[in-house]
């Protein structure tokens, strides 16, 4: 088994649906360390690019290449959706599911799930049905489920889009902790403040293409395209 | 009205007296119907789940067929099974005609499509909710089926109950393949039909009352078993 499945390389990657190009061609490298923020106006292709990298979207042209055999890649990455998908199980069982489906014995998985739930601030809700959690708690549960297997890379699609400031802060803290412990993070967001707080580098998308990929400080202080400059200023990007 | 009241009182007396013949019929009915539901579940649950998650050519046609089979006329099923199991039929050598096994086979043919169709309907909705998450986890097709069956189990108990209702109330098919032989293949519904034609209304009504009570008890038991689980899973 390789130490990390990263870097992830995208070479001329295109995603088409019924002949219409949604994203691409994209050339991009996701290095083994860092916190990449994916930004861009609605419809720019952020979600599609995340799905392409994670393997949820079929690649129409080009290549997505990992530093690991195909069989290892799926189990060593995770994805958090904008709208959390809640299984009809208790919180503890929902978290443990991520382990049991990869062969961890049920008792062991539950034990680890309890530890994770407590760490992530869901200790009070272990036996509650997952579907009745609040929005912030649901997103925490999604994160716990994604992080419990300590993935090499975690993709997040606007995980805080529907959350208040406090819940957003809690999610950000969890993500920063995960990054410190070795999980590479790639996250789409519209929240400029959040991007400035978290990003080590930024990928800016517009019209289905990557218009800029730069270190965060360079992107925010000296954007290279008029679209990125307008986006940072809060103007409407056509 | 007095006749009805008198017959009803007599039938209650029969039930309370613990009449051995009556209870033997009840037990055989339960045995045949429960085994038929079990066999139908073994066939119908995975078939319904595969139809819910599978994407293959002809899937829609199979769904239409399974839905259509829910309305199979029992006497036609009875006749078909009779011809297959009769001495001159392809499975005549098994000598199953006029045995409880033949009745279980007939009931399974009637109940399996009900369970399969209801399972498909329920799990397709659940799969629409779960599909992306399970793909993200890298769950195999069979793993998806197992997950959906497990998470949908409380809803699926309704499908099993619907199957049980069909089986326990069925008369047309079991009377053809079972023959309504006393102490061998006589079940509640066939006995009710026979005793009514003989004018023994008290016994027929006693069995009718027990039939309804059984249906209520089975439903109540499943509801009680599932209630805590449903509450836990919020479904």
Instruction: Could you tell me the CATH topology label of the domain at 8-86 and 152-161 and 190-233 in chain A.
Output: Rossmann fold
Strand proportion of chain A, as a percent range, falls in: 15-25%
CATH architecture descriptor of the domain at 8-86 and 152-161 and 190-233 in chain A: 3-Layer(aba) Sandwich
Q: What is the structural class of chain B?
A: mainly alpha
Number of helices of chain A: 9
- Stretches of chain B where pLDDT is under 50 for at least 5 consecutive residues are none
Number of helices of chain B: 10
Please state the structural category of chain A. Answer: alpha/beta
The average pLDDT value of chain B, as a whole number, equals: 89
The value of Rg of chain B in angstroms is: 21 Å
Name of the CATH superfamily of the domain at 8-86 and 152-161 and 190-233 in chain A: P-loop containing nucleotide triphosphate hydrolases
Poorly predicted regions of chain A are none
Principal-axes geometry of chain B comes out as globular
What kind of sheet is the major sheet of chain B? none
Helix content of chain B: over 70%
What can you tell me about this protein's structure?
The complex is a heterodimer of chains A (238) and B (235). Chain A is α/β, with parallel strands linked by helices. Chain A has a domain at 8-86 and 152-161 and 190-233: Rossmann fold, CATH 3.40.50.300. In chain A, 37% of the residues lie in helices and 24% in strands. Chain A has helices spanning 46-54, 70-73, 91-100, 106-119, 135-147, 165-180, 192-198, 216-221, 226-233, and strands spanning 8-17, 20-30, 35-39, 61-65, 77-80, 153-157, 184-188, 201-206, 209-215. In chain A, helix 3 runs parallel beside helix 5 and helix 5 (135-147) runs parallel beside helix 6 (165-180). Chain A is globular and about 55 Å long. The mean pLDDT of chain A is 90. With 235 residues, chain B is mainly alpha-helical. Chain B is built from ten helices and no strands. Chain B has helices spanning 2-17, 20-53, 59-69, 74-85, 100-137, 141-151, 153-168, 172-178, 188-198, 201-233. The longest helix of chain B has 38 residues, at 100-137. Chain B starts with a helix and ends with a helix.
